[in-house]
Amino acid sequence: MEDQNMREQAKMLNKGGKAREEEQDMGRTYHSGPVIMRGPMIPSSDSNASLLSADADTDWLHMDPWRVLRIQAEFVDGFGALAELGPAATIFGSARTDEGGPDYRAAQRMGAGLAKGGMAVITGGGPGIMEAANKGAALAGGKSVGLGIELPHEQGINRWVNLGITFRYFFVRKMMFMKYSSGIIVCPGGFGTLDEMFEVLTLVQTHKVDTMPIVLFDKKYWDGLFEWLLTTVRDRGMISDLDPGLVVRTDDPDEAVQVILRNRQP
């Protein structure tokens, strides 16, 4: 009798192990708009890669008009979701920042401060700095917005977002950041953060958008880059002088918030 019970328990364990193996075999999850894919159903490239690829087969040229309709739909969805957002500021920063680290805590404090000041907080909707800022805004009872992007290794919109949109195309997403923000805080980050920061600087410096405050948080992180811009690049005539009131570098989260709140747009 005891041997029979042991055999049955072994069978149950084997079944559990097989179930876990089958669950693991499903692989990662990929989101394409509202569609969820796993395993072999995941495409080898995303919408941005398809748009930018040089196609040898010219038949693809006839598909671009249909792609334009998808792009148009993304603009419509974004404008519709954010039209009544009210005054807002965007916080950019790395998705790789560890939860609980000094940059994470600072971003959470800035998100909370902006929310308490009556501003919605917009981020890229991901982990790291973005999650921290959304968390601060949400816990302060404010509007916590995440503008995500479809990527092969995306982790989805973080759980502290109470209004989230996932975009296929970077340029549509960037438009939403700029259209609905009256101030920008840039925390330490990589290529994505640098891309977003230089996009803002370019649009403001060329007067394509109204002047807005740009706060760079963590002076040590940014000082080397801006020393190069204001010496090597400027001295060779590649850029004109930056408005000294346009870019503020600080190590104080509260100062960053106050710079944005002073320039709050209705």
CATH topology of the domain at 87-262: Rossmann fold
Please give the order of strands in the largest beta sheet: 6-5-4-3-7-8-9
Query: How many strands, which pairing sense, and closed or not: the largest β-sheet?
Result: 7 strands, parallel
CATH class of the domain at 87-262: Alpha Beta
Low-confidence stretches: 18-24
Distance between the termini: 78 Å
Pfam family, one: Lysine_decarbox
Enzyme class: hydrolase
Protein name: Cytokinin riboside 5'-monophosphate phosphoribohydrolase
Region (Disordered): 1-26
Q: What is the compact description of this entry?
A:
The protein is of the alpha/beta class.
Architecture overview:
This protein is of the alpha/beta class and 266 residues long. The protein has a domain of 176 residues: Rossmann fold, CATH 3.40.50. 48% of the residues lie in helices and 15% in strands. It contains 9 helices and 9 strands. The strands form 2 sheets. A 7-stranded parallel sheet has the order 6-5-4-3-7-8-9, sandwiched between helices. Strands 1-2 form a two-stranded antiparallel sheet. It is globular.
